[in-house]
Amino acid sequence: DGGITQSPKYLFRKEGQNVTLSCEQNLNHDAMYWYRQDPGQGLRLIYYSQIVNDFQKGDIAEGYSVSREKKESFPLTVTSAQKNPTAFYLCASAGGVTDTQYFGPGTRLTVL
Amino acid sequence: AQKVTQAQTEISVVEKEDVTLDCVYETRDTTYYLFWYKQPPSGELVFLIRRNSFDEQNEISGRYSWNFQKSTSSFNFTITASQVVDSAVYFCALRVTFYNQGGKLIFGQGTELSVKP
């Protein structure tokens, strides 16, 4: 089945630790995105990548880092510099930047 | 500035009622796209519809219909004969068209729809 997978579904982190969220797609999409969702709010863009080995900051990139070494994969690292990392993280992909974005199931990160 | 407003935070209806979710957007672009996504309790966003700024035709898909009016900058979503399975958070989103924006979606705050049996 074609789709977007994110792992893990739930993640718990101690303060001061870096954690990496996985996002994989087998839709052959060029563009991939990371969004953050806080309770009762819409989604905000963290980072996006239009092509392999290239990525751009979104609106709230501070405290996050990404890589795009393969077309299928766009992992997000939440660093200890992110002051309030507890949130729901959604990954999306699209054929191109003008195409519809399709979303993965999300990862819920909680900082203990 | 680009902005999407969903003024209805929560709506509660009884099964079989019709319900309309409002979406008002702001943009200076002449070319833009509008979207609706559904977020069930599982959390995944499910794509429902995409509409470009040059196509003001209303669209119907089963029990779902969308009314796009550029004159009022609105893109409202109606569910006819609602069902319990329609219970979810619904997001309206706007996509800017500048290439250097990378296709960023601007989301409204979402409307939580609760359909009671």
Spell out the key features of this protein.
heterodimer, A: 112 residues, mainly beta, 4-stranded antiparallel beta sheet, globular, B: 117 residues, 6-stranded mixed beta sheet, 51% strand
Overview of the molecule:
The complex is a heterodimer of chains A (112) and B (117). Chain A has strands at residues 4-7, 10-13, 19-25, 31-37, 43-51, 54-57, 64-66, 76-78, 87-94, 102-103, 107-111. With 112 residues, chain A is an all-beta fold. Chain A is built from no helices and 11 strands. In chain B, the strands form 3 sheets. In chain B, strands 2, 5, 6, 10, 11 and 12 form a 6-stranded mixed beta sheet that branches. Chain B has a 4-stranded antiparallel beta sheet with strand order 3-9-8-7, with no helix packed on it. Chain B has a two-stranded antiparallel sheet with strand order 1-4. Chain B is globular and about 45 Å long. The model of chain B has no long low-confidence stretch (mean pLDDT 92). The A-B interface holds A 31, 33, 35, 40-45, 48, 50, 56, 58-59, 88, 90, 92, 94, 96-106, 108 and B 4, 9, 35, 37, 42-47, 50, 91, 93, 97, 99, 101-105, 107-110.
> How helix-rich are the residues of chain A, as a percent range?
under 10%
Summarize the main sheet of chain A: 7 strands, mixed
Largest sheet of chain B: 6 strands, mixed
What portion of residues of chain B is helical? under 10%
Mean pLDDT score of chain B, rounded?
A: 92
Radius of gyration of chain A: 13 Å
Strand content of chain A: over 45%
> Strand percentage of chain B, roughly?
over 45%
Low-confidence stretches of chain A: none
Give the SSE string of chain B. EEEEEEEEEEEE
Query: Largest interface here, residues on each chain?
Result: A-B, 30 and 24 residues
Order of helices and strands of chain A: EEEEEEEEEEE
Shape verdict of chain A:
globular
Kindly state the number of beta strands of chain B.
Answer: 12
Helix count of chain B, per DSSP?
0
* Number of DSSP-assigned strands of chain A: 11
Q: Oligomerization state of this entry? A: heterodimer
Supply the helix-strand structural class of chain A: mainly beta
Overall pLDDT of chain A:
92
Work out the helix count of chain A. Answer: 0
